[in-house]
Amino acid sequence: MKKLKTILFRLIMRYSLLLFFIFSSLSGFSQGFMTMYGLKGLPNNNELNPSLYDDSSKLYIGLPFLSGVSMKSSLDFAYSDLIHYNDSYSRGFNKSTGDSLIIDIPKFYNKLKNKNKLSLESTINLFSFAIRGRSKKEWLGFDNFRISFDIKERLLGQIGIDKGYFTLLHEGNVNYLGKNFDLGNMSMNMTHYREYGIGFTKDIMLFDKRFSAGVRTKFLFGKGNLNADKFNMQLLSDDLPSFLQYTALADANVSSPLIFTFDNEGLIDDVNSSNLEDTDSIIGYLRNTKNKGFALDLGATYEFSDKITFGASLIDFGTIRWKKGVYNLSANASYRFNGVDLTQSINEDDADYKSTDDVLDEMLDSLENSYKITNSENKYSTPIPTKMYFYGNYKLNYKLDFGLLSRFYFYENNSDFALTLSANAKPVKWFSFSASYSAINGNYNNLGIGMTIRGGPIQFYLLSDNIAAAMRPSRAQFINFRFGINLLFGRDWGTYVVKSPRK
After folding, report:
1. Domain locations in the chain?
2. Which residue, of 27, 66, 352, 494, has the fewest CB within 10 Å?
3. CA 462, CA 1: separation in Å to the nearest integer?
4. Is 341 exposed, middle or buried (0-12, 13-18, 19+ CB in 10 A)?
């Protein structure tokens, strides 16, 4: 199966996993931390709404790695739904014959949705800063403003698979003999790009109330993309005579440093990824600026009264145009499997002897030859995940407030929803704390915490939307945490004012 192994394995697995592991070694998973929005004195929450700014300092500097190390993973099922401990074994029964772990196919199958997905987001902050100042003349009632700049490396990934792919594993094919069974669709989307963002925030007067507006423009440079939205498979089986026949249709757009070669018929003959192991080639890959894109962040915060504040934002509204190393792949396969004849593998002295490896290779070569993969090299565009946030806050006093945050997430043909209730406190000027409860994409077991500690110009922060996952990760469908160190200069404790609000 030389060609099939090269095309399918290297194209989809090797390239995408290489991107994933290289990038994840620099950073963890990030973005979208619900608890971070209401955490007082944290400049990083500007990522969720560009109208937010930290008023406890005049200058913020984020250094590579130090300003944020984070992890985020989201599944439609938990690890324990498939594999869990054997209670009888743990109580001392059947230890001689039983297993400590049980593969529970029925439980796993019942937990699946019709469409299941794994979502990943990873970001590394290469450099960032923000400065807060005052103009000499008031503009529209207030002279406070904030200017920011940041450079980020980002990786986005999503794998989707229909429930039909697990149906035969759960039920077998007895009920489907002589019938054409549609397994559904499987997809994989991975994007790696660099982002340069410039932001501006301004306080103005609106109906005699404080109104903050923010905008951030983002210039994007795509590095690599795998966009395989369609892999549909149908199976037909019968026992008289015994056979299994499948048909498959697949489409994928690729922009990568992989080198494709084609035969005389225009079909893919080989995929070479050796250049990905060369240091100079990897540096060239990271320096690529041919795939350009643009995105926009918009945000607003309105202080309705001394007690009540509303906020809304649109984050990452944009696309990337892929031009370099582009391939548009289409696959059409049809294969009939009648079983494997191993009678020639019994006697090594037989003139017609074939090893079991040779027999399997012949079968797999036939499978390979069933795939007809064609290519074109047309430019294409992909969106980046877009998020919308809506926030309401009630200030009990200048040390404690309560927030309600909703998030809508859109990516390709997928969407999800999250809702968070938080309590946010700043009991002393050097410490702030947030506790939250979140319902995220149909998961309701998310208790979060966040805290900041500041000593001089150094601020340490730690937060998670689901602290229970850290203690029992096998039962978690959603896991994230984030921690980092910020540099804050020009001490101005801002919101820590007991007698009067900030001006």
Report:
1. 2-77+112-227+250-327+382-420+449-489
2. 352
3. 49
4. exposed
